[in-house]
Design goal:
With about 200 residues, the chain is mainly alpha-helical. The protein has one domain (about 1-200). The protein is about 70% helix and about 0% strand. The protein has twelve helices and no strands. α4 (about 65-80) crosses α6 (about 105-120). It is globular, with a radius of gyration of 17 Å.
Length: about 200
């Protein structure tokens, strides 16, 4: 647990550092949207590369039940922390967008935080995440090393908590593009778990 909390604190500290750097007037003032500004923050400001294997092992599909439970607890902790909705969204944006956090394990932690928001009934935060961060999750689906995990997260957002089908319907073109990508002879195309959401859509 001590190692987990040390890694967790390092992750949060790196998120804060990237967020502050992205908000600085000296960070490419003409960069455009929030995602673009975060991407332009130097990688050395973010999470150290040696931290990524820890998150990949903690959040792996074949992790032990104890490790998976710990990952779920950390996601719930992030979701229930007493900070404003925009700050939670900003934290998730950094995790999803800044290159230093690019790893399937960190993506899984983001997904577990999203699920934690549902358990905490933070509906406004969920709405913000669904509308502001869906494109960032989609971008991770397009990258081979995070595709499987990102696709689960993408579907989780589309069908996860809303009573309306509006979000799903607006993103049908993306779903069609992803279905074509998975069917294009890739290794993932043979994974029934990945293909299934498009079969039933």
């Amino acid at each position: 647990m001590d190692a987990a909390m040390e890694q967790f604190r390092a992750l949060l500290a790196a998120c804060v550092a990237v967020s502050r750097a992205a908000a600085s007037p000296t960070t490419a003032p003409n960069a455009g949207d929030a995602d673009a500004r975060i991407r332009l923050v130097d990688a050395t400001v973010g999470l150290a590369p040696e931290c990524l294997p820890y998150w990949d092992s903690l959040c792996a599909d074949d992790a032990s039940p104890a490790m998976r439970a710990l990952a779920e607890d950390l996601g719930a902790l992030l979701a229930s922390t007493n900070v404003s909705d925009p700050k939670i969204v900003e934290l998730l944006r950094v995790l999803l967008v800044h290159p230093s956090f690019h790893a399937a394990g960190v993506l899984r932690l983001s997904q577990l935080t999203f699920r934690g928001l549902k358990l905490a009934k933070r509906w406004e935060t969920l709405t913000l995440v669904s509308t502001e961060l869906l494109d960032a999750v989609y971008a991770s689906v397009l990258q081979a090393d995070t595709r499987a995990r990102a696709l689960r997260f993408f579907i989780d957002i589309l069908v996860g908590f809303q009573h309306s089908a509006e979000l799903y319907e607006r993103n049908v073109p993306k779903l069609v593009a992803l279905a074509e990508l998975l069917a294009d002879g890739s290794e993932e195309a043979n994974n029934n778990e990945l293909v299934h959401p498009f079969v039933v859509a």
